[in-house]
Each structure stands twice: as structure tokens, then as C-alpha cells.
Design a protein that fits this description.
Elements: H1 2-15, E1 21-23, E2 30-37, E3 44-48, E4 52-70, E5 74-78, E6 85-89, E7 95-101, E8 105-109, E9 116-119, E10 125-130, E11 145-148, E12 154-162, E13 169-178, E14 182-189, E15 202-207, E16 212-215, E17 218-225, E18 229-236
Antiparallel strand pairs: 1-7, 2-4, 3-18, 4-7, 4-12, 4-13, 5-6, 5-11, 7-8, 8-9, 9-10, 13-14, 14-15, 16-17, 17-18
């Protein structure tokens, strides 16, 4: 302990100021239902053998406005010894805001380093990296950090966490081909994490002359059916 205290004046003299990130007070989250599907009611579409006629995934997430995303790929580098970094980031990836640095910088976490990085309120990299621990914080005046390209801008973004235990749908109806007398569809259900549920798979066979079919809540008009593809319109769901 005495040795640690004796080092403090040296650290302060060397640094002038150390940057320490403060935890962020999180905003109220929002619960949202996400609905994804491959069709639009009444639109003519064509699917080939093995492709879905209907693909639906609906689930519930908790969404937080607590992230920033870059307008382009970037690299942040700089620093010395244990605070040296060279980390890359991807355009559009939501980097979580985990705290603040000083009074005017958002602190974002980028995988690949224990440090966090300061982003100004107008979305530019502030040239500062920091830590939640004072003694491992970068030393101002010695460690210089830069971003390439310098024109990189960070925009407000959200993060989503899938909520288990809520109702969900995750299924598809695939075209399996035809013969001279009939054509086949394959219905499959998936878990919330997209694993096939074999007990909920079903092969369906219809006369090749069918003008429309019904399956569960779907009504599908058939415009053309051949050995390679099916042209159809989903008219009810």
C-alpha cells in the first residue's frame, strides 16, 4: 500500500490528468415486437425448389437507445505499453454507450481492448481513451489516440435483446417440386434461436391442377406450378 501511494505523485506529474469513465444511468427500455416475413399480401412472387413461399419470424425484444454506430469501417490506434490499442470497428455495428468521460463525451466499448473511447455529442472521436479504473487509465499528454479515417461519424443507435418466454412464431413453407399429378410443400417450424423442431415439420401434397390452397391461416393463389418453380400470391394470412 505504501509503495502504491508513493507512486501516485509520479503518475500525476507524468499525466497532468487521467481520464476515468463513469457508469451511465440507463434510459428506460422499450419492449417491441419484431415481425419479419418474405411476402406481401397480394404481391405476385416466384419461388424455386427449396426456397420459401412463406417465411415468418415474430418475436419480442427489449430495446435500449444506448449505442452509437459508425458511418464507415474504422481503426482506433495509439497509446503506450498496457494502454496501447489498435482496434477495428465496423460500419453500422451498435457500440454500446457504457458511460461518460468528463462532462461532454460518451464512452463506448469496442471489442478487443479493456479501454473505452470518448465520442463527442456531434458524433466524432474525441481522441481520448479511458478506463473505469483510475490506476489503469490512459495518461493525458503521453498517450495519443487517433481514428482512421478522421471523417468517421458515430450516429445514435439502439441495442436489442430477445426476450424468452414471450409468444413467438418462426416457421416457413418451402416449395419441394412437382410431378405430372401433384406438387409438394414442406412446412417447418423453428425454435426462437432458429433450430429446426422436427416434431413440427409436415410434408404437404396438392393436385397440380389446384388454383389455390389453404394451409393454417394462409390462403395462396397459384399462378404457375412446374418442376422448377412456383408462382403465387399470398391473399390471406
Amino acid at each position: 500500500m505504501n509503495r502504491l501511494l508513493s507512486l501516485m505523485p509520479f503518475l500525476v506529474l507524468l499525466s497532468g490528468c487521467a481520464h476515468v469513465a463513469r457508469p451511465l444511468h440507463s434510459t428506460a427500455p422499450e419492449i417491441k415486437e419484431i415481425s419479419l416475413k418474405t411476402y406481401n399480401i397480394g404481391r405476385t412472387q416466384t419461388s424455386h425448389v427449396g426456397e420459401p413461399i412463406v417465411r415468418v419470424k415474430k418475436y419480442t425484444v427489449i430495446e435500449r437507445q444506448n449505442a452509437l454506430k459508425a458511418t464507415n469501417d474504422f481503426i482506433i490506434s495509439g497509446g503506450l505499453l498496457d494502454v496501447a490499442v489498435n482496434v477495428s470497428g465496423k460500419a453500422g455495428y451498435p457500440y454500446e454507450i457504457v458511460g461518460t468521460i468528463g462532462s461532454d463525451l460518451h464512452a463506448i466499448r469496442i471489442p478487443g481492448t479493456h479501454l473505452v473511447f470518448g465520442i463527442t455529442h456531434d458524433g466524432r472521436f474525441g481522441g481520448i481513451a479511458a478506463s473505469f479504473n483510475y490506476l489503469s487509465a490512459p495518461i493525458h499528454g503521453v498517450n495519443v489516440y487517433q481514428i482512421e479515417p478522421e471523417s468517421t461519424i458515430f450516429l445514435s443507435a439502439s441495442t436489442q435483446q430477445v426476450l424468452e418466454g414471450y409468444p413467438y412464431q418462426n416457421h416457413e413453407l418451402l416449395y419441394s417440386g412437382s410431378s405430372s399429378n401433384d406438387f409438394k410443400l414442406l412446412y417447418r417450424e423453428y425454435s426462437l434461436t432458429d433450430l429446426i423442431r422436427p416434431a413440427f415439420s409436415q410434408e404437404l401434397t396438392y393436385p397440380i391442377s389446384s388454383k389455390s390452397i389453404r394451409f393454417r391461416g394462409y390462403r395462396i393463389e397459384l399462378l404457375d406450378v412446374n418442376s422448377e418453380s412456383i408462382t403465387f400470391r399470398v391473399v390471406a394470412e
